[in-house]
Amino acid sequence: MSLMAAAAVFTETVHARELPVEPFVYGLVAIIIFFALGIVTYSYRDVANRHRAKAEAYAKRHGGEHGGH
Question: What is the model's pTM?
Answer without folding.
Answer: 0.50
